[in-house]
Design a protein that fits this description.
Blueprint (H helix, E strand, L loop, with lengths): L4 H6 L9 H8 L2 E6 L4 E3 L7 E7 L2 E7 L6 E8 L4 E2 L13 E4 L3 E7 H10 L1 H31 L13
Antiparallel strand pairs: 1-8, 2-7, 3-6, 3-8, 4-5, 4-7
Helix pairs in contact: 3-4
C-alpha cells in the first residue's frame, strides 16, 4: 500500500506553515522505505545524507557509551509516527552522533539532504520555513537531552567536563 506522502508531510513539524505547492516540492524529495523490527535505520558514526519522517512503528534513538568493563547504550528518544529523526544531516555533513533502531516494523519517508537542499536553494521561503522549524525541533531536543544527561549524572558518580557550549 502506497503512502499518502502529502498527508504525512501535512502532519510533520518540519513542514508547518508550508503551502500545498511548497509541500509538493518537498514530496518530490521523499522516498518510502521499510525496515524490519530490530534493524538499524542508520548506524552511529555513519554518514548523514538523509533524514526521516516516521510513518508507522517506533524508532529508538540511541548512543553507545564505551565504559568499562561493559559498554552501555543510552536511549535518547523513541520516535513515534509523525516525528522526524536524522534531521541533523540537513544542517551539517558530520557523521551521525547516534543510531536509529527500528523497535517495530517501520515505514519511513526518507528525504535526501542533497535533494532537499536543491529545493531550498530554488525556493528560499521553503528553506527559511524548514530551517526555522528545524531550529525549534533541535532546541526542544537539546533541552530533553540536557535533562536526560542531568538525570544520568545525578544517578552516577560521573564527572562532566564543561566544554564552553552554551545551551
Amino acid at each position: 500500500m502506497a503512502l499518502d506522502i502529502m498527508k504525512i508531510l501535512h502532519r510533520t513539524p518540519m513542514t508547518i506553515d508550508l503551502t500545498e505547492e511548497e509541500l509538493t516540492a518537498i514530496a518530490s524529495c521523499c522516498r518510502e522505505r521499510r525496515f524490519p523490527a530490530g534493524s538499524e535505520v542508520f548506524a552511529e558514526a555513519s554518514p548523514g545524507r538523509e533524514m526521516y519522517v516516521l510513518c508507522t512503528g517506533r524508532v529508538s534513538i540511541e548512543i553507545n557509551i564505551p565504559s568499562q568493563p561493559v559498554p552501555k547504550t543510552i536511549q535518547l528518544a523513541v520516535a513515534q509516527p509523525g516525528m522526524i529523526f536524522g534531521e541533523v544531516a540537513l544542517v551539517d555533513s558530520a557523521p551521525r552522533s547516534a543510531r536509529a533502531l527500528a523497535r517495530d516494523e517501520v515505514t519511513v519517508l526518507e528525504i535526501s539532504h542533497e535533494d532537499l537542499r536543491r529545493v531550498m536553494d530554488a525556493e528560499p521561503r521553503i528553506g527559511y520555513v524548514i530551517l526555522q522549524n528545524l531550529a525549534t525541533i533541535l532546541c526542544d531536543r537539546l533541552r530533553s537531552t540536557n535533562l536526560l544527561l542531568r538525570n544520568e549524572w545525578i544517578n552516577s558518580d560521573a564527572q562532566v567536563e564543561y566544554r564552553g557550549h552554551d545551551s
